[in-house]
Amino acid sequence: MRTMIALCGWLVFPLLLLTDHRGDDFWVVPFKAWRTTAETDPLVRLETGHVKGVRDASGVTNFRGIPYAAAPVGNRRWQPPFPVPSWKELRLATEYGPACPQQSQSWGPTSEDCLSLNVFTTATKRPTRPVMVWIHGGGYLGGSARGYDGRVLAHKGVVVVTINYRVGALGYLAHPALGAESTQQGSSNYGLLDQIAALKWVQRNIAQFGGDPANVTLFGESVGGFAVGELLACPLAKGLFHRAILQSGTGLHNGILRRQKAEALALMGAKTLGIDGTDASAASALRSVSTDRLVAAYPRPHQGPLRGYQVWFGPVVDGRVLPLPLDKAIQLGRWNRVPILVGTTAAEGIRFQPRAPTQSLSGYYTLLGQGDLGDTSGALASLYPVEDTAQLVTQSQQLVGDLGFGAPARALARLVIGAGGQAYLYQFTRVSTNASSDRIPAVHTSELPFVFGQVPASWTAYVNDGQAPDDAMLADALSDYWITFAQHGSPNGPKGGRKWPYWPLYNAKTNVYQDLGIPIQTRYGLRDQYYDVLDRLARQDGEIRP
Q1: 257 by DSSP, 3-state: which?
Q2: What is the pLDDT of residues 16-50, one digit of tens each?
Q3: What is the dihedral angle through the alpha carbons of 215, 220, 226, 227, rounded to the nearest 10 degrees?
Q4: Sequence-distant (≥ 6) Cβ neighbours of residue 247 within 8 angstroms
Q5: pLDDT, tens digit, for every residue of 506-539?
Q6: Which residues belong to any copy of the Carboxylesterase type B domain (predicted)?
Q7: d(Cα 84, Cα 101) in Å, to the nearest integer?
Q8: Are strands 129-135 and 159-163 parallel, antiparallel or unpaired?
Q9: Which residue in 182, 222, 396, 479 is the catalytic one?
Q10: 4-11 vs 375-383: helix axis angle to the nearest 10?
Q11: How far is CA 67 from the centre of its chain?
C-alpha cells in the first residue's frame, strides 16, 4: 500500500508544476518609487573580479546576474557546479541573468548558462548585516530569481540574495548513464547542488556587500520551501546557513522521488529522444541533445483527472547529497539543526484544486482511492465527507490544502521541537477584495508580496486595490517578522524592542501559532482534528511523524 505521502504527491505536487509562479502574471510589479543614481553606483571586489551594481535614490544597491558557478554546458551538463573563471575587466552587474531552461516563457530569456544570483544591500562596509537567501518555487520545472525584489527588505537592514538553479531535466535527471559517472555517487540532485554552490559563494563573498556569512537565513516558498527542507537534511550544506523559513512547503512531501521511479522516468523521456541504453554512449548522446528538445521531451503534467498527472522531476534520496528524507533525518539527529519558521496560507488548496475533481460523488471517493490506499482512503472519506455535489469543490480543496501543506507544516514544527530545536508556526489568513469586490481568500503565494514588503496598487488579483492601509500594515509586519527572525533566530527580537504582537515558540501541547491576518493574533489548535488524523494515518503507513 502506498503511503500517505504518496497520496500527497498525487493530489498536490504535480499541480505545483502547473500553478506555480508565472512571472509577471504572478505578483511581480515594477516598484516605480525606486530611481537609480548612476553617478554613485558602487564597485565591489569579489574573489573572481570586480562588479558594478546600480544604486537607487533610497540607498539600496542591486547587483544582478553575478555568476556563482561556471556555465553547466557541454561536458559539464549534468555535473556538479564548477567554479567560476576569474575575469579581468569590470563586470556590469546591472541586468538579471537568464532563467534556467524551462517550458514557461514567463521569466524572460533562458539559457543553460543560468547559474547566477542577485544581491540587494544598503551597506558595503561594516557593520555586517544578516543575510537572507531566497530560493524560488516553480515545481522543479521552472521559475527564476528575477521576479523577487529584495529592495524593501534590504532597506530594513538585511542583505538579500536571490538565486537561480537548474530545474527540470537539466536539474534533476536521474538517468542511470549519468549516475554511473557522477562524482556525487550517483546523485541526480544537480539543482540542489547548485543551491549549495550558491550558499558557498555567499560564505566567500557576502562580506564584500556588508553581509555577515555567520548569519545566513534560507527562505523559500512552495518548491522553494521544499528546497529549504532538503537543505536541512543535506550534510553538504552543514554550516552554510543558520536559520530557515519554509513557506507553503516543507520537504515532507512526495517530491522526493524514489530512485527506481526517477530512473524509470528518465529512461522514458530519453526514449522519446531516440536514446536507449544506460552506458557511456547514452550519456554522450544525451549531452548532444539541444536544450529545446530536451526540455520538450519531459512535458509538464497535462490538465485533466488527477490520475493523469505525472511527476517527472524532483530530488532523489541518493545516499550522499540527500542521505535521508527530512523527517527521518530529524528523528535520527542527522540534520542541520537551526531554528525554523514554517507555515502556510489559509486556502492553499484552491489553486491546486480549483474545481471539483469530478462531477459526481462517486468520483470524489474514487479520487481518495487513487494509489490503492485501502483503509487510508476510507479514513479520509470519513474526515472529508461529501453529501452533495455542492461540497465537492470545497472538500477537495480543503483536503489538498491540509494534506499537502497544513499538516506537514505542523508536523515539521513538531519534529523540530521534539528534537530539541526551535520552531515558530504561522498561517497567513488575509482575505482581500479585488477590483470587482470579490472576496479572495489567502491562496497559495498570497503572502509573498507581504513578505517582500511590497503590495503594489496595480496588483489586484489577490490583494486589495490601492494598497489599503491594512495591507500596508500587514506587509510591514510580515517583512519585520521575517527580518527579525533572520537577525535573532526569533520573530520577536530583543525584549522591549518589539513592534508587533508577540509570537510564541511552537508547543505541541497547545499547538500555538501566529494568525497573520487583520488583526495579527496568537491562536491555538490549528485544524487539530484534521491534522491529528492525517498524522495518525501517516504513522500507520510507516512515515515518521511526531
Answers
A1: strand
A2: 544 545 433 334 433 333 444 455 678 999 999 99
A3: -60
A4: 219, 220, 221, 222, 224, 225, 342, 343, 344, 447, 448, 451
A5: 999 999 999 999 999 999 999 999 999 888 887 6
A6: 41-529
A7: 20
A8: parallel
A9: 222
A10: 60
A11: 21
Q: Is 39 a catalytic residue?
A: no
pLDDT at residue 413 tops 70: yes
Distance CA 271, CA 230 (A): 30
**Strand, coil or helix: 493:** coil
Distance CA 158, CA 211 (A): 8
The alpha carbon torsion through 419, 404, 18, 390 (nearest 10 deg) reads -160
User: Is residue 532 classed as helix, strand or coil in its secondary structure?
Assistant: helix
Long-range contacts of 380-384 (CB under 8 A, 24+ apart): 380/7, 380/537, 383/530, 383/533, 383/534
Closest to 23 measured CA to CA, from 112, 94, 110:
110
CB of 158 closer than 8 Å to CB of 172: no
From edge to edge, which strands make up the β-sheet containing 50-52? Answer: 43-45, 50-52, 91-92
Interval 482-494: pLDDT, tens: 999 999 999 998 8
Give me the catalytic one of 230, 444, 447, 479. Answer: 444
Other CB atoms within 10 Å distance of the CB of residue 350: 22
Instruction: For residue 457, give the 3-state DSSP assignment.
Output: coil
Q: Enter the C-alpha cell of residue 255.
A: 517530491
Q: What is the grid cell recorded at 71?
A: 556555465
Residues 6 or more apart whose Cβ sits within 8 Å of residue 131: 158, 159, 160, 161, 202, 206, 211, 212, 213, 215, 216, 217, 486
Strands 91-92 and 54-55 turn out to be unpaired
Q: What is the dihedral of CA 165, 226, 326, 234, to 10 degrees?
A: 20
Dig out the grid coordinates for 322 from the structure: 540527500
Ranking 265-269, 278-282, 300-304 by mean pLDDT, the lowest is 300-304
> What is the C-alpha to C-alpha distance for residues 421 and 402, in angstroms, rounded to an integer?
24
Q: Which residue has the cell 529549504?
A: 228
Beta-carbon contacts of 539 under 8 Å, excluding residues fewer than 6 positions away, are: 545
d(CA 107, CA 100): 9
What is the set of domains in the chain, with CATH numbers?
14-350+420-429+436-477 (3.40.50.1820)
- What is the identity of the amino acid at 508? A
**Catalytic choice (230, 348, 447, 543):** 348
pLDDT for 439-494, tens place per residue?
A: 778 999 999 999 998 875 544 434 444 456 788 899 999 999 999 999 999 999 88
Q: Is 148 or 312 the better-scoring residue by pLDDT?
A: 148
Grid cell in block for residue 216: 545566513
**Catalytic-residue membership of 348:** yes
DSSP-assigned letter for residue 112: S
Residue 222 annotated to the active site: yes
Burial 522-541 (b: 16+ CB within 10 A, else e): eeeebbeebbebbbebbeeb
Spatial distance between the Cα atoms of 61 and 83, rounded to a whole number of angstroms: 25
Q: Cβ contacts of residue 48 below 8 Å, gap of 6+?
A: 67, 84, 85, 86, 87
Residue 187 backbone phi and psi in degrees, to 5: -70, 140
